[in-house]
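Progress note, sequence design subtask.
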């Protein structure tokens, strides 16, 4: 366990060291504008063209063409979801939760982008609407839609509880992704990656710094909506923790389905979309 009471006395200049002002690691002022208002205007003229119901303790995959919108919707009860994104045409390019967190913060909302991994490092999707944006941060320092939790997985569950639990989000995504692309499970598992925890309410303990969670504030009708910057394959797991108020890998928690909707603004509008280029960094010779 992490020591709450330090073993070493503070130095004489401890307060001075601790009072040094922080700076933002990655200022994002130089990034291209997300054109949020224009995207919202386009969305109003879109029509729903497909949808996918993700059943409790399971996962599913769906394709989203670039220039379209997709929405993750709570439909029956409070339920969190683990979202993976891949480049539809090259699954080696996938969502990079760590760099997204470094650029936009621990929790995402309207206007934030979801970035891909190295060496691509480009926007994959932009969040255009979030019905839980009112939540902000609560008295416990927790908020919704985090990019700090990796995804519940059977390996950590085995290590901590000694149990073999097969419905963790990592397992769900592996099975759904492998089945969708008709690839071997072993290969599929290597392409599952850290997630956006949609609707999950999380933060860090102020006392120990541990990752904490609490009951999600999501209710039926709430949604998180994205604009696809590139052709995407999305994988979503309806977490076996339900609203994650107690445990995030459980057959006891009350769980509900989640809905993914794809909205198309029309071919004429989609053709005007300019796909972000992959990162232009030139490797050393």
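Output:
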């Amino acid at each position: 366990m992490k020591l709450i009471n330090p073993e070493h006395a503070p130095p004489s200049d401890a307060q001075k060291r601790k009072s040094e002002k922080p700076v933002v690691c990655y200022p994002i002022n130089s990034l291209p504008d997300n054109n949020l208002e224009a995207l919202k205007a386009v969305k109003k003229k879109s029509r729903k063209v497909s949808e996918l119901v993700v059943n409790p303790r399971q996962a599913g995959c769906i394709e989203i063409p670039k220039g379209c919108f997709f929405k993750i919707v709570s439909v029956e009860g409070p339920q969190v979801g683990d979202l993976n994104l891949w480049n539809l045409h090259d699954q080696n390019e996938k969502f990079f939760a760590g760099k997204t967190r470094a650029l936009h913060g621990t929790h995402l909302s309207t206007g934030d982008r979801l970035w891909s991994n190295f060496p691509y490092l480009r926007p994959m999707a932009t969040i255009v609407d979030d019905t839980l944006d009112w939540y902000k941060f609560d008295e416990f320092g927790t908020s919704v839609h985090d990019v700090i939790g990796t995804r519940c997985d059977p390996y950590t569950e085995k290590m901590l509880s000694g149990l073999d639990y097969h419905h963790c989000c990592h397992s769900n995504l592996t099975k759904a992704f492998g089945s969708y692309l008709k690839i071997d499970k072993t290969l599929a598992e290597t392409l599952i990656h850290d997630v956006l925890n949609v609707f999950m309410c999380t933060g860090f303990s102020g006392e120990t710094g541990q990752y904490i969670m609490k009951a999600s504030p999501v209710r039926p009708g709430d949604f998180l909506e994205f604009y696809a910057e590139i052709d995407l394959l999305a994988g979503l797991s309806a977490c076996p923790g339900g609203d994650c108020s107690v445990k995030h890998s459980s057959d006891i928690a009350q769980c509900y389905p989640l809905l993914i909707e794809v909205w198309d603004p029309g071919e004429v509008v989609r053709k005007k979309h300019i796909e972000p280029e992959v990162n232009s960094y030139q490797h050393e010779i």
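The radius of gyration is 20 Å. Work on this subtask will continue into the next period as scheduled.
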